[in-house]
Design brief:
This protein is α/β, with parallel strands linked by helices. The protein is 50% helix and 18% strand. It is built from 31 helices and 25 strands.
C-alpha cells in the first residue's frame, strides 16, 4: 500500500486542496476530449469547392455576361439547390450520435484531507484516493490499495464477460463496473491518458471515404473532364467555322450544362435518407448517410458470437446426474444470480443454472461463501443444516470438481469414487464439451473439517450453451447465397465456437484459429490464410484491428461488429463498424451503424437495403448520364452538320434538373430486384464497361433521332422556334421512356415512377402551350401530327434497350 501511495505522491489521508489544484493545473481535467465540429459557415462554403459546381457557376456568369439573365438565374438556382442539399447531408453526418461527452461517470467518492466527499468526476486528479462500492462505475484508471471480495466487469475493455477478481495493487479501469465487494484505489491516469481515453483518441481520427463517396467522386471528375474536353473541342471547331464568338461561347456553355448531372447530389441524399429510414424500422440505426450503401458492397461480415449470433442467455441443454435432486439443490443454492420477470439477472452461467434448478424446493440458509476465482475455478457456499451442522455446496470446472471428490452419490447411496466411475464421468465431460457446451460439475459434503473444498461427494454435470438466435442460421445462409463471407470472432473456447459455427453454417470447409495462434503469425503468414479462416476463437478485442486490416488490404469491404471500448478502433477501421445497442458509448461513437436489437439477422436486412440503394443509385446514374451523353452527342452532331443548336441553355437545365427530378428521384426509391440476395457483391465503379456501352448506345439513339427530326423540321421550312420545340419535346420523351427502361424487376410495383413520368409529361405540356412559360423556355405550340412523330421516334429507346439486354445475355 505504501509503495503505491508513494509512487503517485499521495497518502492514506488523501490529497490536500492545494495539491488538487496544482495537479489539475498540471494534468488537466478528467474528461474525454471531443473533436471540434466543423463550423457551419465553413461547412456551407466547402460545398462550393467542387468541379461540377464550379462549371455551373462559370456557365451562369457567362450567360449573364452575354445578356441571358433568365438563363443565368436558372443556372444559379441549380447551383444553390446542389449546395444546400450537400450542406444538409454534411450537417446530418456531423450531428450524428455524439456520445463521447456522456462517456465518463458524473460523480466519484474521494478521500481528501482525511474526509470522505462526493465530487464531480471531472475534478479527479493523479494521486486522488477513490472509494469504490458494488454497482459503481470506475471514474478513472486506479491502482487498488484495498480490496474486499472485489469483482469487476471489464467486458467493455476486454470483451470477456466473466467477472474479474481484483486484489491489492491490481489496476481497475475507467468505465468498468464493480460487480461485488468494495475497494479503495489511487488515481493512476485521467481523461485522455486512461485506457478509454487512448482508444477514444483513435476513434476520433478522420473517417475514411466510403466506397460510394469514392465512386461518386470519380464519376463526377470523369464527367467534368469529358465536359471540359468536349466544350473546348466544340468551341475551337465553331470558331474556325467563322461562327460569332458569343454564339460559340453559348454552345460551350450549353455543353457544360448538358454534361453535368446536376441532380446527382439531391437524388443521392434522398435515396440514402430513405434507406436510413427503412433500416431504422428494422432497428438498425445508421449514423452516416454514405454508410448505408457501404453495406450493400460488403464482401465480409466479421461477427461477434455472443449476443449477436446467439441469445447471450446461457441455457442448460444437457445433463448427467448420479443424484438429480441433490444436483438441483446445489445449482439453486450455490448461486448468486436471481430471477426477475422470468429473466435471470447476474452472471450468465449462474443465471442459466438457476433457471434450470429454480423449481427445486430446497431452501437452506447460507452462512458463508468462497467466491469463484480464476485460480480455483470453483464456487462454494456453506449452508446451515437443521441448525446443528453445516453442508457445503460446490460447483465449478468439472475436472477440478472431480479431482476434489472422494465419494459419489447414487441417489442417496454414497460410495467411494473408483477409477471406473471416474472414467465414465470423464467420458461424459468430453462428450458434452465436444458438443460445444460449457460443462459445470456439482458436489457437496457435510462439513466436518477446516477444508470445505476437499473430500467432496460428486452428484452430477450440467452442460450449458448459448443458443443461436432463431433467425441467425437463415441470415448466415442468406449471406452465403449473396456472396458474402461470414467470419465468427469470439473470446470463447475453440470447441464452443466451432460447435456454434457449424450449427449456423459458418464453419464449412474453412479453418479456425485462436488468438494465441494468430499472435504468433507474421503478417505474410496471416495474409496467406486470412481468406480461409472462418472462425476466430479466444480472440482479444485488440486483435480485431489486425483482422480488419488484413481483410481490407485484400480488397474486401469489411463489416465488423463490437460492443466494448477495445472494439472501437476495429469498428472505426472497418469499412462499416456495427455497434450493439447495449454496447459502450465509445463503441457506438466509433461505429457507422448501431443494432438496437443486437441481432445478426438485422445486419443482413441492412445489407439487403444497402444493395437496393446501390441498385437505385446506379439506375439514376445510368438514366442521368445517358441523358447527358445524348444531349452532348446531339449538340456535337448539329454543330458538325452546321445546324443551329436544337436546345437553348434553359431548356438544357430543364432537361437536366426538372425533367430528371421526378423520374430520377422515384428511380431512387424503386423496390428490390428479385435476385438481389442471389448475386455477388458489387465492388467496382458505378459505371462499368457494360454500363458505359449501354449508356453510349442509348445516347447515340437519342442523338440520331433528335437530329433527324430537328433536321426534318428545318427542311420543311418550319420556324427555328418550332423545330427547337419539337426537338426539345422529343428529347424529353426520350427521357421518359428511358426512365421506364430503368425500372426495377421487383415484386413492388413502380407506382411512384409511373406517377413521376405522367407528372413530367404534364409539365412539358405546360411549357409548350402556356404563353408565360413559352417566353421563358422559347417554345411554341406543336400539332398532333408532331406528337405522333415524337412518340414513335422516342419509343425507339425502349426497343434499343430490349435489343441490348438480349445481346448482353
Amino acid at each position: 500500500m505504501e509503495n503505491v501511495l508513494s509512487q503517485f505522491d499521495s497518502s492514506a489521508e488523501g490529497l490536500s486542496k492545494q495539491e488538487v489544484l496544482e495537479r489539475q493545473k498540471e494534468y488537466g481535467l478528467n474528461k474525454i476530449e471531443e473533436k471540434k465540429p466543423t463550423p457551419l459557415i465553413k461547412l456551407f462554403l466547402i460545398q462550393f469547392v467542387d468541379i461540377l459546381i464550379g462549371l455551373l457557376i462559370v456557365a451562369a456568369v457567362a450567360a449573364y455576361a452575354i445578356g441571358d439573365v433568365i438563363d443565368a438565374c436558372v443556372i444559379m438556382l441549380a447551383v444553390l439547390l446542389n449546395v444546400i442539399m450537400g450542406f444538409i447531408q454534411e450537417y446530418r453526418s456531423q450531428k450524428a450520435v455524439e456520445s463521447l461527452k456522456n462517456l465518463i461517470v458524473k460523480t466519484a467518492v474521494v478521500k481528501r484531507e482525511n474526509r470522505i466527499e462526493q465530487i464531480n468526476s471531472e475534478e479527479l486528479t493523479i494521486g486522488d484516493i477513490v472509494i469504490l462500492e458494488e454497482g459503481d462505475r470506475v471514474p478513472a484508471d486506479l491502482v487498488l490499495i484495498e480490496a474486499n471480495n472485489l469483482t469487476c466487469d471489464e467486458s467493455s475493455l476486454t470483451g470477456e464477460s466473466e467477472a474479474v477478481k481484483k486484489e491489492i495493487e491490481d489496476e481497475v479501469y475507467m468505465d468498468c463496473n464493480i460487480l461485488s465487494g468494495n475497494a479503495v484505489g489511487v488515481v493512476k491516469a485521467i481523461g485522455m491518458k486512461t485506457q478509454v481515453g487512448e482508444i477514444a483518441e483513435v476513434v476520433q481520427e478522420d473517417d475514411e471515404d466510403t466506397p460510394l463517396k469514392a465512386k461518386v467522386g470519380r464519376l463526377g471528375k470523369t464527367l467534368s473532364l469529358i465536359a471540359i474536353a468536349v466544350c473546348i473541342a466544340i468551341f475551337v471547331l465553331e470558331l474556325f467555322k467563322g461562327i460569332p464568338l458569343v454564339e460559340t461561347f453559348m454552345t460551350a456553355v450549353s455543353l457544360a450544362v448538358a454534361a453535368i448531372p446536376e441532380g446527382l447530389p439531391a437524388v443521392l441524399t434522398l435515396t440514402l435518407a430513405l434507406g436510413m429510414s427503412e433500416m431504422a424500422k428494422s432497428q438498425a440505426i445508421v449514423k452516416r448517410l454514405l454508410s448505408v450503401e457501404t453495406l450493400g458492397s460488403c464482401t465480409i461480415i466479421c461477427s461477434d458470437k455472443t449476443g449477436t449470433l446467439t441469445e447471450n442467455k446461457m441455457t442448460v441443454v444437457e445433463s448427467y446426474f448420479t443424484n438429480e435432486d441433490r444436483t438441483l439443490e446445489i445449482g439453486k443454492l450455490c448461486n448468486n444470480a436471481s430471477i426477475s420477470n422470468g429473466e435471470a439477472i447476474g452472471d450468465q452461467t449462474d443465471g442459466g443454472i438457476l433457471k434450470f434448478c429454480q423449481n427445486h424446493k430446497g431452501d437452506l440458509k447460507r452462512v458463508d461463501e468462497i467466491p469463484l476465482d480464476s485460480n480455483r475455478k470453483m464456487m462454494t457456499t456453506i449452508h446451515s443444516l437443521n441448525g446443528e451442522k453445516n453442508i457445503v455446496f460446490t460447483k465449478g470446472a468439472p475436472e477440478i470438481i472431480l479431482d476434489k471428490c472422494k465419494h459419489i452419490d447414487y441417489d442417496g447411496s454414497i460410495k467411494i469414487i473408483d477409477a471406473e466411475s471416474k472414467e465414465i464421468i470423464i467420458k461424459k465431460i468430453d462428450e458434452m464439451s465436444g458438443h460445444g457446451l460449457r460443462v459445470i460439475g456439482f458436489a457437496y459434503k457435510i462439513e466436518d473439517d477446516d477444508e470445505p473444498e476437499e473430500n467432496l461427494t460428486f452428484t452430477g454435470l450440467l452442460g450449458l450453451a448459448d443458443p443461436p438466435k432463431k433467425d441467425a442460421k437463415k441470415a448466415v445462409s442468406d449471406c452465403l447465397k449473396a456472396g458474402i463471407k461470414v467470419k465468427m470472432i469470439t473470446g470463447d473456447h475453440e470447441k464452443t465456437a466451432c460447435s456454434i459455427a457449424k450449427n449456423l453454417g459458418i464453419l464449412t470447409t474453412g479453418r479456425t484459429i485462436t488468438g494465441d495462434e494468430l499472435e504468433k503469425l507474421t503478417t505474410e503468414e496471416y495474409m496467406a490464410i486470412a481468406d480461409d479462416i472462418q472462425v476466430y476463437a479466444r480472440v482479444k478485442p485488440k486483435q480485431k484491428m489486425r483482422i480488419v486490416e488484413a481483410l481490407k488490404s485484400s480488397g474486401n469491404i469489411v463489416a465488423m461488429t463490437g460492443d466494448g471500448v477495445n472494439d472501437a478502433p476495429a469498428l472505426k477501421k472497418a469499412s462499416i463498424g456495427v455497434a450493439m445497442g447495449d454496447g459502450t458509448d465509445v463503441a457506438k461513437e466509433s461505429a457507422d451503424m448501431i443494432l438496437e436489437n443486437n441481432d445478426f439477422a438485422t445486419i443482413v436486412k441492412a445489407v439487403k437495403e444497402g444493395r437496393k440503394i446501390y441498385d437505385n443509385i446506379k439506375r439514376f446514374v445510368k438514366f442521368q448520364v445517358s441523358t447527358n451523353v445524348g444531349a452532348i452527342l446531339t449538340i456535337i452532331g448539329t454543330s458538325l452538320l452546321s445546324l443551329p443548336l436544337p436546345f437553348n441553355p434553359v431548356q438544357l437545365l430543364w432537361l437536366n434538373i426538372v425533367m430528371d427530378g421526378p423520374p430520377a428521384q422515384t428511380l431512387g426509391i424503386e423496390g428490390a430486384e428479385k435476385d438481389l440476395m442471389h448475386r455477388p457483391p458489387e465492388t467496382g465503379d458505378i459505371l462499368t464497361k457494360k454500363t458505359l456501352i449501354e449508356i453510349l448506345i442509348s445516347g447515340i439513339v437519342m442523338a440520331i433521332g433528335t437530329i433527324a427530326v430537328f433536321s426534318y423540321q428545318l427542311s420543311i421550312n418550319s420556324s427555328e422556334s418550332k423545330a427547337m420545340t419539337v426537338a426539345f419535346t422529343l428529347f424529353v420523351m426520350y427521357q421518359l421512356f428511358n426512365a421506364y427502361n430503368r425500372k426495377a424487376n421487383s415484386d413492388k410495383p413502380s407506382t411512384y415512377l409511373y406517377a413521376a413520368i405522367i407528372l413530367s409529361f404534364l409539365l412539358q405540356l405546360l411549357i409548350i402551350y402556356l404563353p408565360q412559360l413559352q417566353v421563358i423556355f422559347r417554345t411554341t405550340a406543336i400539332s398532333l401530327i408532331d406528337w405522333v412523330v415524337i412518340i414513335i421516334v422516342a419509343f425507339t429507346i425502349v426497343i434499343a434497350e430490349r435489343i441490348m439486354k438480349r445481346v448482353i445475355k
